[in-house]
Amino acid sequence: MIPAPATVGVWVCERVIIDAETGQPSLIGILTALPVSEIPSQPQQVSVVAELAGGHGMGLIELTVWRLATMEQVHGTSAYVRFPDRIMIVRVYFRMHGIEFPAPGVYEFRLSVDDEMIAQRRLRVYSAGG
């Protein structure tokens, strides 16, 4: 895809509800930190919403999760996205299942289009038990 899109916004949240009548999303439980009951964590589920603009054509969008302390990738997913024109804002939704956080610390959600990183969002994972 030429050019790569710019990021309008990226949010990590507990879930996204799409209104059946209007098609508009509601982001539920926007996260900057995530308490887990044990470390390493049981498989977790989070949603990621991104708004992108300025791209044109088809592109492969990838969302990866990295443990920053070790630079280890712990999860990832991808999908194709179509940008009808460079002006339109395109919303992309990811429901990520089965993310296992091996240790407490900071994790980074990285968004790339056609292998070019365009955004990141950090999430602190900690033990809810103390």
Architecture overview:
The protein is an all-beta fold and 130 residues long. It has one domain (6-127): Sandwich (Immunoglobulin-like), CATH 2.60.40. Helix content is 0%, strand content 67%. The protein contains no helices and 9 strands. The protein has strands at residues 6-18, 25-30, 33-36, 44-53, 57-67, 72-83, 90-99, 105-113, 116-127. A 5-stranded mixed sheet has the order 3-9-8-5-6, with no helix packed on it. A 4-stranded antiparallel sheet has the order 2-1-4-7, with no helix packed on it. Strand 8 (105-113) and strand 9 (116-127) form a beta hairpin. The N and C termini lie far apart (46 Å). The mean pLDDT is 94.
Note the total helix count: 0
Share of helix, binned: under 10%
Derived from helix and strand composition plus strand pairing, the structural class reads: mainly beta
Please report the distance between the alpha carbons of the first and last residues. Answer: 46 Å
> What is the number of domains?
1
